[in-house]
Each structure stands twice: as C-alpha cells, then as structure tokens.
Amino acid sequence: MTILFIALMAGFFFLLQRYLYDRFWNKGVSVKITFEKDEVTEGDENALFEIIENRKWLPLSTLKVKFQCSRHLMFEGGKGSVATDMYYKSDFFSVMPYQRITRSLQMHCPKRGYYSIYGIDLVAADLFFSKELYDHYEAGDAFYVYPKPFDSPEIAHAMQKISGVVAVKRHVTEDPFTFRGIREYAVFDEMKTINWKATARTGELKVNMRDYTSVKSVRIFLNLADNNILRREELLEMSIRICARIVGELLHQGIRTAVYANAQDALTGQILSMENNTGVGNITNIYRALARLNLESTEDFERCLGNKFLREEAMYTIMISPERHEDFQNMLLQQKQKDGFCWLCPVKEEEKESILPQLSGNCYLILEEQE
Q: DSSP class of residue 194?
C-alpha cells in the first residue's frame, strides 16, 4: 500500500511539474546578448555578454542558449561553437529562481563589417528531462568594425599633392553665398560685385568681398567590382582601407569631401553615395558606410557611376581601384583631361600588368599589405 501511494505521489508530482514547465517555464525569463563596444577598428578586441534572468519561482535546471553571428568574429576558446558559413554558439546555464547570470566572451575582430546577432534560441527541460521546451528571440545587438586606415609612402606622396592642389584652388574660387567684408573698388572688379548701399553712403565705389569655397572640393570614387577570374578580395579590402585613410585626412583638413562606391550597403541595399561631408564629425558616418559595404553585391562602375565620375563638378577627383583593364583605363583618361585627378591602384607585388603611359603621371601603385 505504501509503495502504491509513493508511486501515485511520484506520478502526480511528475505530471504536475511537467504541466508547470509547459505553461510557465519561459515566463519571467529574459536573455540579452550585447557587445561591450559599439564600434572598433580592424584588429581590435571586443567582448560579448550573455545576460540571463529568471524572475520567477520556478528553477531552470538546464537552459541552453544558442545564437548565430558572423564567422569572421574570432571568439576566445571556441568551446561549444561551430564555424561554417556562420558562427553557431551554444552555452548551457542552470538558473535558479530570481537569479541573474552574466557571462562574457572575448573576441578578436580581424575584418571590417557590420556584425549582429541573428537570433537567439532557448532550449530548456523540465525537472526530469522528459521534454524539451523551446523559445526564440528575434532581436540581437550589433556593432561596427571600421576599416583600418591604410598608410604607405605612396599614399603620403599622393596626399601631399592632393592637399597642395586643393589648398591653392580653394583660394581662387569664391563662394557667392558667403560674405567676408567690403573694400575699395578696383579696375578688375565686376559690376555685379558693387555694394550700392555702401557706395551711396561713402560716396566712393565699394565692392563686396566673398569668402573662398571648398564646396565639393574632392570626390573619392571607390571601384570594388572584380572582373578577374580569380577573386582578389584582399585588394578590394585594401582599397576600402585606403579610402578610410584619405577621408580621415581630408576631413581633418576641413576639405569638403564626397565619397562614392559601386558596392551595395549591407543594410539598405543602395550603392554608397555620400556628398557634402565636412569636418571631423562626418568621419564616423563615412567609416560606418565603408564598414557596411558588401563585396558580394557590386555593380559595374561605368554603368552606375560612370556619368557622375566624368562630370566636371569638383576641384579634385580621386579614383581608388585595383581594376586595370583597358576600357576602365580609357575612362580614366577622359577624366585626366580635366583639371585635378589621381588614381590610387592597389597591386600585388608579383603583378606586372601595365598602366597606360598617358596615366603614369597620375597613377600611384600601392603594394599589397604583407602579413
């Protein structure tokens, strides 16, 4: 009789706990995965935090937390993870009633990009492990890995030339919308510059002085299409790093800069087109846009940006491209006929492809980074 009673009580307890876990196991349970830093640069470290809370009286003797992120993130240790096309991470927790657990995981960020958590799956069980229980969270945190600005003697030489040309040109081009003062009339002044109110007040001809402009003073075009049989991703990534280096320097000098690229934004699906960037405050916006460029979704440069490239609307135009086929160089020749142009061309050390003689004075060959 006692054995029967114990068996009935055990059966009742088993069914009761199973009912309770079926209905309430995920009530009051929250899982948050976040990153220590919102933005880092290629080669930097970051940390991922898993925060588990159980705000109820029912314990979770086993809780498996699974999530996915990019395989380009290199986690310390790598236990409980599988890296294929994505990085699949699984962690096990035992969460008591009204308990909060925080676990951190260090990671290395070797490649630029926009990295996010693609979903969180929870797998729990009742006290007897008789049934698995599932839940899913869509939302996850994200952070940026900015391209590391690339430096080399060739880029330093090119920047000296660019900065010198722009510095001269921005002081010979007046901005009709900015007012700097009034001065005496000179024989070379145009009638439209005369300030008639000041002339009437003083009895002598006076003219307005305008400030000098740097509007659209530099345009940077980034050609990331790869038409070679063997993909040269390392040269394309190098091109993005060169762009980051040049943008940073130009904006620190107060030079207005536009940036265009024929690769799609990983979030918006649009090709990169950022104009009227001035001041260091815009560097972050451009670095974020460069980080989101998707090299798997590029468009033909001449088709999507060719007309804009050949337009005369800037004091100086910079092309950054490892592409060297004949049609592309012929397009560059058309821009060379205009005032102010250079081509920064990343190359592998063993490559011996020729540059058209007419472009040699405007082209800077930049050797691939060596590990």
A: B
Q: Where are the alpha helices (DSSP H) in 170-296?
A: 196-202, 233-252, 283-291
Q: Is residue 266 within 8 Å of 114, Cβ to Cβ? A: yes
**Which one of 3.30.930.10, 2.60.40.1530, 3.50.50.60, 3.40.50.80 gives the CATH number of domain 28-146?**
2.60.40.1530
Averages of pLDDT over runs of 10 residues in the chain (371 residues) are 77 80 89 93 94 92 89 75 70 92 93 90 88 83 94 86 62 50 69 77 76 64 82 90 94 89 93 86 93 92 87 80 88 80 85 76 81 50
> CA-to-CA distance for 61 and 18, rounded, in angstroms?
13
Whole-model pTM: value is 0.79
Write the CATH number of the domain with boundaries 153-170+214-367: 3.40.50
Q: Return the structure tokens found at 344.
A: 């920064």
Nearest CA-CA partner of 33 in 111, 109, 138? 138
